[in-house]
Amino acid sequence: TAANDRDFSAYRFMIKYNAANNLGDGDFRVKLKNVVLTSYEKPTTEEWNQQKAQEVDALIDAIKTPVTLESEASITVARSAYDALKSAQKALVTKLDALTAAETTLAGLKSDAAVANTIKLINDIGTPITLESGSVIKAARAAYNALTAAEQANTALANGDISQEQYDALQREI
Fold this sequence. Notes:
single chain, 61% helix, elongated, disordered N terminus
């Protein structure tokens, strides 16, 4: 009959709904009028904690390898999700090492990019240095000053990336 077809259709919907929302195949009832889940087996605290940890592990898995500068958004999302967990849930995350490694790689890539950008700005100063070089020197100085001491050392004359005149211009006010 039509009513039985509706019942079976609603039941199939609820099975799909539960599967799509990771609710399992627990006890549930269907209201035919609204076709909504009215009850299901509430997960235990341990099950809930495991589910939350697995969600973070999935976010960590979603970080593409090799890590690039474009990976920053997915790394940030995974870290924020991990940080939002309770300590019992954090203990269940199995891929934290992968997240930490991705963060370390990203930090290195960002540092390399900042050094490369600073070297480019320094090289853009050009020679000979003129009064018109002022704005270019200021931009290079700002980029240089934003670097850490170790990053600044990577722009040193020993690398051959900048000329003595450009380096001197960077070191003094115009």
